[in-house]
Design brief:
Helix content: over 70%
Shape: globular
Strand content: under 5%
Radius of gyration: 27 Å
Order of helices and strands: HHHHHHHHHHHHHHHHHHHHHHH
Number of strands: 0
Largest sheet: none
Structural class: mainly alpha
Number of helices: 23
């Protein structure tokens, strides 16, 4: 006889079994949820009316959730920038800048991976693009094959953590926190992660210099101002786009969806700038528009009516219209935008169906007291907060072998977020507890993307690597970088300030000590006599 207490673990077991068969996750979630829902109705755990909550939840979480509208905009931005030649220009210029240094090509891959992570947002696109561009060059100049595969895979996975990552948007939505706070919390770990990667490369240059040799002088074609100019032309437009997208959102000037829309427009602008046939007139109008927008933003913040602010952005939009007309005139740049639309449609549809399927599963899971069962399981772990963190990190680490971050976010987070808030709030505070928890899970998922033999980043790298690159080189090459990312997970857990330092600190006020003093005001004496003539 099946009891109510048996239903939650049976649902988890059924879900794992169905996914191991290889059925698409979105439909697996819906099928398992509805199947156990009808079984629960048959056993009398709830009636058919309970399932009416599913359409309402789907409407509330998908159709009326304005935050999720940011996903297609950021996806389009990343799809366009990944194909426009920006990565090639930046890797070439950075490689020549750091070329004279041991490990210089490794430094360039790490830095460009960090910058591209902030503007593309997808692991697959970044690993593939950087491998196709950098791997032949690093092989040509004698870099150790395992270092090559490791640094390319690791610098691609940093995409998940660097704002404005899609992972952070989804985490913020599922944890019920602001995207701006999630971005602020992620900056510290992402910068520390890059420093760990660069530090490892530096140590290799000292102890194993043959693994990371300098680029020969005759291979460096650019020097002096020409080299610096090319580097700046690759970095400055990207930095402006990141500032517009993140700055307007964090200053409260735009919602995540509005910031994503500006990022999508900015992607078209950067694609046009990097196109060889883009006219000089278009560049001039673009520069005027960017300068006007920057001045208008600064002035508009301090003006009540913001007239200059609106005027400056009017000029900016005129520049964007010019650029779009130029993009239409140039045939292959229109094709680029079309590919961006196709990628956006595919990813957005996948996210929507996963969200619908996870809603079916979670409603039924909660209906059979799954939330109570899960809370009892997690709160009864030995070790208190440390036991909870250890269990959750190991659990997410292994889940990320088989599931994408969208699936983990939509299936697991809604169930464990209330429990995490209750357990972690005494340790780091009521406000930043879930921000810290979300960023910690984000760093953890990076590690699982690299772990052989299931790491997704390794699959992407294997798919584009030349035939002379062995699978063993890819797997063994990832191991040191997994260790570096595991160190980052430990640092985030041991030092919550790596996440919470940039967040607004709550004002600690003891209400028992608050005193309100009203100044004594001398009033004229009241005269109740007859009015004077």
């Amino acid at each position: 006889m099946i009891t109510l207490e048996m239903m939650p673990p049976m649902m988890f077991g059924g879900l794992v079994l169905a996914m191991l068969i290889g059925f698409p996750v979105a439909f697996t979630l819906a099928a398992v949820g509805l199947s156990f829902g009808f079984l629960a109705i048959h056993l009398g755990f709830f009636d058919l009316n309970f399932l009416q909550a599913i359409p309402g939840r789907v409407f509330g979480s998908v159709l009326s959730n304005e935050l999720l509208l940011a996903i297609p905009f950021f996806t389009f931005m990343g799809a366009v920038l990944e194909r426009c030649g920006l990565a090639e220009d930046m890797l070439d210029s950075m490689g020549q800048l750091f070329g004279p240094v041991r490990g210089g090509l490794g430094y360039s891959v790490i830095i460009v991976g960090f910058i591209l992570g902030a503007i593309t947002g997808t692991v697959a696109a970044q690993v593939i693009a950087m491998a196709l561009i950098s791997m032949p060059v690093m092989i040509r100049y004698g870099y150790n094959m395992r270092y090559i595969t490791g640094v390319l895979a690791a610098s691609g996975t940093i995409t998940q953590l660097v704002p404005p990552s899609l992972v952070l948007i989804v985490l913020a939505d599922q944890l019920g926190k602001s995207v701006g706070d999630m971005y602020l919390g992620a900056w510290g770990p992402s910068v520390f992660q890059i420093l760990l990667f660069a530090g490892y490369t530096f140590l290799l240059g000292i102890f194993k210099p043959s693994h990371v040799p300098a680029v020969p002088k005759e291979a460096r074609t650019l020097t002096g101002w020409a080299l610096w100019k090319k580097c700046l032309m690759g970095i400055i437009p990207s930095a402006v786009l990141i500032f517009v997208v993140l700055g307007t959102m964090m200053m409260g000037l735009a919602t995540p969806t509005e910031a994503g829309a500006m990022g999508a427009v900015g992607a078209i602008v950067l694609a046009a700038i990097h196109h060889k046939d883009f006219s000089s007139a278009g560049n001039k109008v673009l520069v005027i528009g960017i300068v006007a927008a920057g001045v208008g933003t600064i002035v508009g913040i301090y003006m009540t009516e913001g007239a200059l602010f609106r005027a400056a952005f009017a000029v900016t939009y005129l520049a964007v219209v010019w650029i779009c007309l130029e993009a239409v005139r140039i045939g292959d740049l229109r094709d680029l935008i079309k590919q961006g639309y196709e990628t956006t449609m595919r990813i957005t549809t996948m996210v929507t169906f996963i969200l619908i399927g996870s809603t079916c599963f979670s409603v039924v899971f909660l209906g059979v007291s799954g939330g109570v069962w899960l809370e009892h399981l997690l709160t009864s772990l030995p070790g208190g907060v440390w036991g909870f963190l250890l269990f959750i990190n190991i659990f997410i680490f292994f889940l990320a072998f088989f599931l994408d971050f969208f699936e983990i976010a939509f299936i697991i987070l809604p169930m464990i977020a209330p429990i995490a808030q209750k357990i972690l709030a005494p340790a780091v505070g009521e406000g930043p507890a879930l921000i810290w928890f979300g960023v910690m899970l984000c760093v953890n998922m990076q590690t699982s993307f690299l772990h052989p033999p299931f790491g997704f980043a390794l699959f992407y790298l294997r798919g584009v690597a030349p035939k002379e690159v062995k699978s063993s080189d890819i797997y063994w090459g990832a191991m040191p970088w997994i260790g570096l990312q595991a160190i980052m997970v430990i640092l985030v857990i041991a030092f919550p300030s790596t996440v919470t330092a940039l967040l607004d600190k709550p004002v600690d006020v003891d209400l028992n000590k608050v005193k309100i003093e009203v100044p004594q005001i001398d009033l004229p004496p009241l005269d109740f006599g007859p009015p004077k003539q």
